From TrEMBL, chain A:
<feature type="domain" description="ABC transmembrane type-1">
    <location>
        <begin position="15"/>
        <end position="224"/>
    </location>
</feature>
<dbReference type="Pfam" id="PF00528">
    <property type="entry name" value="BPD_transp_1"/>
</dbReference>
<keyword id="KW-0813">Transport</keyword>
<keyword id="KW-1003">Cell membrane</keyword>
<keyword id="KW-0812">Transmembrane</keyword>
<dbReference type="InterPro" id="IPR035906">
    <property type="entry name" value="MetI-like_sf"/>
</dbReference>
<dbReference type="GO" id="GO:0022857">
    <property type="term" value="F:transmembrane transporter activity"/>
</dbReference>
<keyword id="KW-0472">Membrane</keyword>
<feature type="transmembrane region" description="Helical">
    <location>
        <begin position="60"/>
        <end position="81"/>
    </location>
</feature>
TrEMBL record, chain B:
<keyword id="KW-0547">Nucleotide-binding</keyword>
<keyword id="KW-0067">ATP-binding</keyword>
<keyword id="KW-0029">Amino-acid transport</keyword>
<keyword id="KW-0813">Transport</keyword>
<dbReference type="InterPro" id="IPR027417">
    <property type="entry name" value="P-loop_NTPase"/>
</dbReference>
<dbReference type="InterPro" id="IPR050086">
    <property type="entry name" value="MetN_ABC_transporter-like"/>
</dbReference>
<dbReference type="GO" id="GO:0015426">
    <property type="term" value="F:ATPase-coupled polar amino acid-transporter activity"/>
</dbReference>
<protein>
    <recommendedName>
        <fullName>ABC-type polar-amino-acid transporter</fullName>
        <ecNumber>7.4.2.1</ecNumber>
    </recommendedName>
</protein>
<dbReference type="Pfam" id="PF00005">
    <property type="entry name" value="ABC_tran"/>
</dbReference>
């Protein structure tokens, strides 16, 4: 098991890169998923159709295929996903700004794929709010946006938190795929590096990698449990 | 109280839920200041009629005019119209995550853009009027059913509506709490509020209503002053209904 100590810096580096892409992907997926959820519950039929189409496409396609499209389809279309070189963010997360586009491609794929599940988690929360709440808000003259913001969404978090947590945890584990699409040095790709290139035994390396993922996922699960308890609304 | 000026006018309104014809050529006019009580067996379309007036239930055919203006389609204009029509539900529907005072002040602040301090002050006065000013900072789940319904009435009144719709406001209450809600409604009626009340409370219909509407199978069967309706129902259907509810 000495590899865990000898190569601690390699594990730590892999952990740090995986954490970076997960934080960015989680933010992106939450924003895009929230937008899609609002579209899906909108009173305007064409907007609902857009939301539904998005979820149908990205929820039903394997992540690997989405990654393929991002990593090979975008360059074929002449894009290096440079729109993700967001000022300030790219100085915090340096991989966003590098000339090699694979981190951006992988991030895009993770965001697009995860947003479909975020959308459905948020929508299930909205559906859990009794319809009378929205009716009362409408009958006071609140607009659709005001209704969501002041009445429905604040009450939907409680029912959304648990499924949303599962979605983000799944996303962290899904990020293990990015090493196969050109991203060098994430937690999973570290295993490949240490075992095949440097000849370390597989099991100790795999244990180290697992610990890395657990450090991200277990506290997240605990945090969500606490949030859920705090959000409880008496009826 | 009735002024002879129509405020709510329904003209040959039809509504289907799939194959079920819930409103069948319903025509009705409610004057400013009038109190109309709608009674009838369950499934007769009373609640649908009440909910159609502020378009919580869109109708399939016919017209509904409120204060001279046909009901607009979903959007800003409809939101504005709804803000002028107070609605009280059977299940109260107080916002569960807000205190009673926040419930009452939300509409004035967000829809009417009133200053929060002024809206809260007016809200407190309304809560005082319905007798629950001391509950202002509690959450809906901490109140009894009767208190919740009185809060819901205060919430609707906070919008200074031109008319109030009551959809079976006492049907979900314990018997001992029915009176406190009816008292508030009776005082509203005596102050000249235009009211459409769907209810099974025959006592309220007798003493507070200007007119009683009897509905059955989606049709408006009778429309008469309460004394006349209760003493001399013209239709067989109404006689049958009254004999069933008044014998116990």
């Amino acid at each position: 098991m000495s590899v865990l100590i000898d190569k601690f810096d390699v594990f730590a580096g892999g952990f740090w890169l995986t954490l970076q892409i997960c934080v960015l992907a989680a933010i992106g997926a939450l924003i895009l998923g929230a937008v899609m959820a609002v579209l899906r519950i909108s009173p305007v039929p064409p907007l609902r159709a857009v939301g539904t189409a998005y979820v149908t496409v990205f929820r039903n396609m394997p992540l690997t295929v989405v990654m393929f499209f991002a990593a090979f389809g975008l360059p074929a279309l002449g894009s290096n996903a440079d729109f993700l070189r967001i000022p300030v963010l790219d100085s915090l997360f340096t991989r966003l700004g590098t000339d090699l586009p694979y981190f951006r491609f992988a991030l895009l794929a993770l965001v697009l794929y995860t947003a479909a599940f975020v959308c459905e988690a948020l929508r299930s929360g909205v559906n859990a709010v009794p319809p009378g709440q929205a009716e009362a808000a409408r009958s006071l003259g609140l607009t659709f946006g005001q209704n969501l913001r002041h009445v429905v969404l604040p009450q939907s978090w409680k029912a959304s938190v648990v499924p949303l947590g599962s979605v983000i945890i799944a996303m962290i584990k899904n990020s293990a795929l990015i090493g196969f699409f050109g991203v060098v040095g994430d937690l999973s790709q570290t295993a490949d590096q240490l075992t095949s290139a440097e000849g370390y035994a597989f099991i100790p390396v795999a244990v180290g990698i697992s610990i890395g993922y657990l450090i991200m996922t277990v506290p997240l699960g605990a945090l969500l449990d606490r949030l859920e308890k705090r959000q409880a609304v008496a009826r | 109280m009735a002024t002879g000026e129509p405020l709510i006018v329904l003209d040959r309104v039809n509504k289907w839920f799939g194959p079920l014809h819930v409103l069948h050529d319903v025509s009705l006019s409610v004057d400013k200041g009038e109190v109309v009580v709608v009674i009838g067996p369950s499934g007769s379309g009373k609640s649908t009629l009440c909910r159609a007036i502020n378009r919580l239930e869109p109708i399939n055919d016919g017209t509904i005019v409120f204060d001279g203006q046909p009901l607009p389609a979903e959007g800003k204009a409809l939101a504005k119209l709804r803000s002028e029509v107070g609605m009280v539900f059977q299940s109260f529907n107080l916002f569960a995550h807000k205190t009673i005072l926040e419930n009452v002040a939300l509409g004035p602040i967000k829809v009417r853009k009133e200053k929060p301090a002024a809206a809260r002050e007016r809200g407190l006065a309304l809560l005082d009027r319905v007798g629950i000013a001391n509950q202002a900072d509690k959450y809906p789940a901490q109140l009894s059913g009767g208190q919740q319904q009185r809060a819901a009435i205060a919430r609707a009144l906070a919008m200074q509506p031109k008319a109030m719709l009551f959809d079976e406001p006492t049907s979900a209450l314990d018997p001992e709490m029915v009176g406190e809600v009816l008292d508030v409604m009776t005082s509203l009626a005596s102050e000249g509020m235009t009211m459409v009340v769907v209810t099974h409370e025959m006592g309220f219909a007798r003493h507070a209503a200007n007119r009683v509407i009897f509905m059955a199978d989606g049709q408006l069967v009778e429309d008469a002053p309460p004394t006349e309706f209760f003493a001399n129902p013209r239709s067989e259907r109404a006689r049958d209904f009254l004999s069933k509810i008044l014998t116990h």
